[in-house]
Amino acid sequence: MAQIKSAKTRISRNKNREEVNKTRLAAVRTEVKKVRKDLASGADATASFKSAESALARAANRGTMHKKAASRKISRLAKALKESGNK
């Protein structure tokens, strides 16, 4: 258990940040799943792709996920969208 005040504060802040990041990451995963579901069903996935792209970029900019990981996911979704015939 931490004894120093700054260490106790850091533990508390890390816990709060972890909660925020979990929520944000869950939202990103949900958006990506919506795009995949739309692509699988043959529906127009452009709107859901834009939403997922925005969520991924936001998560990367806020440090929830690595910028290159977000970019890779966006790229793969865009490629899948293009191959499905939606533009």
Instruction: Pick out the low-confidence regions.
Output: none
The CATH architecture: Up-down Bundle
Q: Write down how many β-strands occur, each being a DSSP E stretch of 2 or more residues.
A: 0
Mean pLDDT over the residues: 95
Helix content: over 70%
Number of helices: 3
The CATH superfamily bears the name Ribosomal protein S20
CATH class designation? Mainly Alpha
The radius of gyration is 17 Å
Q: Return the structural class.
A: mainly alpha
Task: Spell out the helices and strands N to C.
Answer: HHH
Shape: elongated
- How much of the sequence lies in strands comes to under 5%
CATH topology: Methane Monooxygenase Hydroxylase, Chain G, domain 1
Largest β sheet strand count, sense and barrel closure: none
Number of domains: 1
From the N-terminal CA to the C-terminal CA, the straight-line distance is 55 Å
Task: Summarize the structure in words.
- The chain contains three helices and no strands.
- With 87 residues, it is an all-alpha fold.
- It has a single domain (5-83), classed as Methane Monooxygenase Hydroxylase, Chain G, domain 1.
- Helix 1 runs antiparallel to helix 2 (46-61) and helix 2 packs antiparallel against helix 3.
- The longest helix is centred in the first third of the chain and has 37 residues, at 5-41.
- The radius of gyration is 17 Å and the shape is elongated.
What characteristics describe this protein?
single chain, 87 residues, mainly alpha, Methane Monooxygenase Hydroxylase, Chain G, domain 1, 80% helix, elongated
Any chance you could write out the topology, listing elements then pairs?
Blueprint: H1 5-41, H2 46-61, H3 67-83
